[in-house]
Amino acid sequence: MTWVGHSQRRLEDPPLLSGVARFAADIEFSGQLHMRVVRSPMASGRIQALEISAAQDVPEVYAVWTSEDVVDIPPIGLRMTHLPELEQYRQPVLAHEFVRYVGEPVAVVFAEDAYTAEDGAGVVFADIDPGEPVLDVRRSGTFAPGVGNEAAVLHKETGDISAAFDAADHLVELELSVGRHSGVPMETRGALAWHDRSTGVLHMYGAAKVPHYNRAAIASMLGLHLNQVQLHEGHVGGGFGIRGELYPEDVLVCAAALRLGRPVRWIEDRREHLIAANHSRDQVHQVRAAVRSDGFILGIDDEFWLDQGAYVRTHGATVPDLTAAMLPGPYLVPAYRVVGHVVLTNKTPAGTYRSPGRFEGTFVRERLVDAVAHRLDLDPIAVRRTNLIPTEAMPFDRDVDALGTHVIYDSGDYTSLMDQTLQTIPPERLRSEAAALCSDEEVVGIGAAFFVEKSGLGPYDGVRVTVDESGGVEVVTGAASVGQGVETVVAQVCADALGVRPEAVRVVHGQTDRISHGMGAFASRVTAMTGSATHYAALAVRDKALSVAAEMLEAAIEDLVVENGTIGVRGSPGGPSVSLAEAAIAMSPVVRGGDGPAGLTAEEWFRSDRMSYPYGFHLAAVAVDPETGGCRVVKYVVAYDVGRAVNPQLVDGQLVGAAAQGIGGTLLEEFVYDDFGQPLASTFMDYLMPTAAEVPDVETLIFEEAPSPLNPLGVKGAGEGGLTASGAAIAAAIDDAIGSPLAVRRLPVTPNRLHDLIRALGDTT
Amino acid sequence: MTTHEVKLDINGSEHVVAVESRKTLADVIREDCSLTGTNVGCEHGVCGACTILLDGEPVRSCLLFAVQCEGMEVRTVEGLATADGLHPLQQAFSEHHALQCGFCTPGFLMLAVGALERDHDMSDDDVREVVTSNLCRCTGYQNITRAVMAAREVMP
Ligand code: FES
Ligand code: FES
Question: Quick one: which of A541, A570, A566 has its CA closest to A556?
Fold first, then answer.
């Protein structure tokens, strides 16, 4: 049987179900110190003094550090989308001279236990001369004396935009905004560093997402060689973009372990997480479309402002770059121009969150398409059909770059996916099913949105597959797992190529001491990149095994098959055979002799300089209570083409989970600040995550019509498409429910905002 | 630092620990009793990752001090599987893909075991209601609800 395409039960599950998993907070070393971060209580100001003596006097407090103790450590660098002008906005590991957001680390306390460390931190007094916080992206301010708060302006353009507007029959214009929310995984961040003085190696646990990159960054910041720093990924309680990036706390535990000579552990609490880990989204767009009278969009001209928060973190300009490059999405749009302003404010710094830039851009573009339909009095689906890139135009060159790669949509039949979805779930059926789930007070609406995602970011991934002399199969990869099922998917791919069962494969990821390079887990890249490398490495191991087995069995290689770990002659079951273990023994240096490479092992590197582009369509049905402004999503449909689904059950799980996050970001979740820059959402009581009560049954339609030509498996990433169009689809559904086209121009649509919209309607009618 | 002696019965084993009165039950279970299966996601009683059974009732162990639980019976995720294998609910979670990162899983398992032991014949609506008690960021809940419903049919 083939394992790819099979809903294999997850290999990850047993330890997670039985409570023996090792998350960051589950690891400890004897003699460890606990670190607690003292955070700025003010959004903006100059540090006059930090009084730490009271903390030093707390019994069992071991040390207290301020920026003076870490002057030699440079600010945290940019991992991605590096623009030189962003350098000066990097975050120091402890605030120096200025504080720029509530939650910024200003000091750290090390103590014998976590409670005592918190006692110590509680009596550090930060004397700060308050400044005037900048909280609006369209207000100019200063980052530092002589340095303004507009960090960068991005510009992408293709086609003749002025000609498009000159030729237009209609102009459609909108201002749209997406609020500030983020990934908020259930496990908070954590890091534990230990300097093994017997070997001189610094180990850090609690790494995730990009361990190899972070190893290099930490080594360089602390003046160590790469071979003196090893990062280890354990179980990871959700990633979603924010976890695993290099943060000040990671560097501080490493520096402290080196300098204090004891293991140092830091576990974030939830309040810290909500004010200190990366926020995301938070964009305002002013967008115009040049439209022909048949609804064809000749050009889009967009200017947007991204609220980056107080510093530019590891993602550099990733989010605005993707927003700009992916804005036209699935439509032809022969001319477009985007200008994106990256603006610093006195809020928590921002980075990526699942579907970065595309959630925002899809909201903007799909609202714009709805506006075109409304203006021309056309059916919104018909307008989409008029503009969708036809399958004959694939591969489609968008003529812009994203993340340093040229944007070429690799494959797709957009119209077919939309039509099939509408046939399977006709809108009127969706409406009547939704109506059946509503109370008498509620009104129903439905909405739809189309989108293109991106996945499989290169440039490389390497995998080593080894069969040991006991027959154990191990795949070592530099990819990471943030809980999405990487081990199972990689094991399935390996199983097919090698001829074993997935359960026989052990997958090692996120360990810098097991493989020299690794790109990690982000941008829905692992299945495509790591999966492909696994495929080739496992095939190479299989070839080696077959050549020794051919000698042992005195048979021709072409006549051999590998099944369930046993090599035999095709068509003679029960005949002579060689197990993979026996092949490995035959290749061991002891048995084999000679000079060639020993062992049944192979390493392969898969390279790709292009991304693949999955695509999909969302349908939402909502119930709105006009009295209260309450809105419930009562039905949700995600149709998504992933090229090829390695494990359909896991793809479904990714899509449903992402849709729930989309519903959260569209209706509930928002990091609100008051006029002084104080965060008002710093607990789960005021940062509202969707519970099962807010998430309806999500129906998924997984398409495999457009395999990617860019990798041997044909796969595209499945991680983000459940989220991408949720803001747009739900917004359209709300408009429909309240009978007011384009009413929703701002996310999240909280009950008070929706109530205001409905009241304004009442005033105008 | 003044400590108090507390005796807890956890999964059938007696643990006697000396802890500060301010130490939460969650921290004592994890640190003093070395049972790290119970996770802590918010420490303010909303997420439910820390749910355990206390004298048979699902409770948030981050909202209790260990000293309040003297002599009480605690059940955690580590106590679900037996020598014969995983508990039916654990099996149902795996079968229905009700976990991704698995951080919320121990809390959901204890929540649902507590609810199902109290009422074997919970209606589908009751199951849905129970599942709303805890937060999961990965799954979108529907597979968790399905798993609990499936386990309801086979639980002893
Ligand atoms: S940790 Fe106890 S409810 Fe969240
Ligand atoms: S499985 Fe990750 S939080 Fe529930």
Answer: A570
Residue A765 pLDDT greater than 60, yes or no? no
In the prediction, which pLDDT does B156 show? 74
State the ligand closest to the CA atom of A660.
Answer: 2
Q: Tens digit of pLDDT for each residue in A6-41?
A: 999 999 999 999 999 999 999 999 999 999 999 999
Name the burial class of residue A361, with classes exposed (0-12), middle (13-18) and buried (19+) by CB atoms within 10 angstroms of its CB: buried
Whether A523 and A435 share a structural domain: no
The CATH code of the domain that includes A518 is 3.30.365.10
What does the domain layout of chain B look like in residue ranges? 3-78, 88-154
Q: Which domain holds residue A265?
A: 18-132+188-236+243-276
Q: How far is ligand 1, taken at its centre, from the CA of residue A749, in Å?
A: 27
Q: Which ligand is nearest to the CA of A482?
A: 2
Q: Rounded distance, CA A77 to CA A74, Å?
A: 8
Report the percentage of chain A scoring pLDDT > 70: 99
Q: Please give the ipTM for the structure prediction.
A: 0.98
- Give the C-alpha distances (Å, rounded to integers) separating A544 from A567, A575, B153: 12, 21, 49
Four-way CATH pick for B3-78: 3.40.50.300, 3.10.20.30, 2.20.28.120, 3.20.20.10: 3.10.20.30
Please give the residue of chain A at the shortest CA–CA distance from B136.
A186
Spatial contact of A126 and A41, defined as CB atoms under 8 Å apart: yes
Q: Are residues A62 and A45 in the same domain?
A: yes
Contacts of A658 in chain B (CB under 8 A): 140
Per residue in A43-80, pLDDT (tens digit) is 999 999 999 999 999 999 999 999 999 999 999 999 88
Judge if the beta carbon of residue B106 lies within 6 A of ligand 1. no
Cα(A487)–Cα(A21) distance, integer angstroms: 14
Domain count, chain A: 3
Question: How far is the centre of ligand 1, averaged over its atoms, from the C-alpha of B133 (Å)?
Answer: 11
- Mean residue pLDDT of chain A comes to 95
pTM of this structure: 0.97
CATH superfamily of this structure's domain B88-154: [2Fe-2S]-binding domain (1.10.150.120)
Q: Do B139 and A656 touch (CB under 8 A)?
A: yes
CA of A419 to the centre of ligand 1 (A): 45
Which residues of chain B carry a pLDDT beneath 50?
Answer: none
Q: Between chains, do A10 and B93 touch, taking CB under 8 Å as contact?
A: no
- For residue A659, give how far its alpha carbon lies from the nearest alpha carbon of chain B (Å): 7
Query: Alpha-carbon distance A398 to A409, whole Å?
Result: 8
